[in-house]
Amino acid sequence: MRQSAIGIAVGTLLAACGGGGGSSSDTPPAQQNLQSIAVPAQPWTFPTTTLTATDSSGNTYTVDASNVAGGSMTFNGQVADTAVETITISENGVVLSTSATTAYYLMNPYAPLGLTGSANGTDYTFVVTSFSPYPTMFTVGSTGPVLSGNYEDSTGNVIGSLTETYTVTADSDSALFVNIIGAGTLNGNAVSETVTYALADVGSGIPTLTEVVLTVNGTTLTFQ
């Protein structure tokens, strides 16, 4: 569910004129962070990406994540495009969990419909109940809603809910960060996740997965 006019950083050129010989020297412009960028088309897919984290005891965790486009399928009576997200979490090289989630969405314009997947052995369906398209530009300091919806079990009973919001933060003179923050509950357990993408004003403009904040075995870890 996660989901560039070129932003221009303007530097100031300082010229100092010396006395006597009439010489001058130029000070390089100060580097400024990119402040805005056009929003790339959704959905945001990415190839397999590996991020790592270390807890206070020195254990090393890895997340192998991918999100790739799939074929057309029917979701809640609508023919939708799909994308499959696969996540494998390991601790010290031992796999702790592997999950696959299928996202369903409409195109032209993009509108997410929901997800199917499983958590702790329980199959679920997530149905989007509200969706707010991104603005045309991301600007550092901006924030806003993304979507909200309900988790349902195989018989249609609501077993949880989730709300996503976004924030935009500075990265460098050529890129900025878009942080997608999800919070809710599933089967009585708290659900929280922050996924950060880097957006650059050069190249293809395709978002790059750079950071994921997850809770693993009760410990909140930042994977980078």
Major β-sheet annotation: 12 strands, antiparallel
Can you list the strand order of the major beta sheet?
A: 4-5-6-7-8-9-11-12-13-14-15-16
Give a count of the beta strands, DSSP E runs of length 2 or more. 16
Whole-angstrom Rg? 21 Å
Number of discrete helical segments = 0
Mean pLDDT: 84
Please trace the helix and strand order, writing H or E for each element.
EEEEEEEEEEEEEEEE
Kindly state the percentage of residues in helix. Answer: under 10%
Shape: globular
What is the count of structural domains? 1
Protein architecture, described:
With 224 residues, the protein is mostly beta strands. It has one domain (14-223). The protein is 0% helix and 65% strand. The protein is built from no helices and 16 strands. Strands 4-5-6-7-8-9-11-12-13-14-15-16 form a 12-stranded antiparallel sheet, with no helix packed on it. A two-stranded antiparallel ribbon has the order 1-2. A two-stranded antiparallel ribbon has the order 3-10. β11 (143-152) and β12 form a beta hairpin. The chain is globular, with a radius of gyration of 21 Å. The model is unreliable at 1-24 (pLDDT under 50).
